Amino acid sequence: MAGRGGIRGSQVGAGPMGENERGELAPRTVVSFWCGNGHEVRIGFALGADHPDVWDCPKCGLVAGRDRDNLPVPAGTAPYMTHLGYLRQRRSQEEGDILLEEALAKLRGSI
Ligand SMILES: [Zn+2]
């Protein structure tokens, strides 16, 4: 990132001078993200800059979120949806109650 665009005109790996410039950045705020494995990822952002809601955990690669109690579900590892889960997508709760009643009635032998 440093030196991109040739504004400074210094060589890549300029050494101490580059280090100093990095130390003089605008005030930063540290934002914590938590991944599903409980890793805390602390990322420094420029104060007032927008920061993302999620960050890839550098330790395990899971998506880490800002809200420790409401972690994002990483794409591709969505919880396995049960047969009942698919059913609930297709049926309303009311229909489900009727189906359940029918099933129970069959079990009781009253149909
Ligand atoms: Zn992690």
What is the compact description of this entry?
The protein has helices at residues 16-23, 83-90, 93-108; strands at residues 28-34, 40-46, 54-56, 63-65. By secondary structure, it is an alpha+beta fold. The radius of gyration is 26 Å and the shape is rod-shaped.
The secondary structure category is: alpha+beta
Helical content, roughly?
25-40%
Quickly count the helices: 3
Rg result: 26 Å
Q: Beta-sheet strand percentage?
A: 15-25%
Q: What is the straight-line distance between the termini?
A: 74 Å
Give me the strand/helix succession. Answer: HEEEEHH
Which ligands, by name, code or SMILES, are bound? Answer: zinc ion
CATH C-level category of one domain: Mainly Beta
Which residues form runs of ≥5 with pLDDT under 50?
none
Q: What is the typical, i.e. mean, pLDDT?
A: 76
User: From the 3D coordinates, which CATH architecture of one domain would you assign?
Assistant: Single Sheet
Report the sheet with the most strands, covering strand number, pairing sense and barrel closure.
Answer: 2 strands, antiparallel
Give the CATH topology of one domain. Rubrerythrin, domain 2
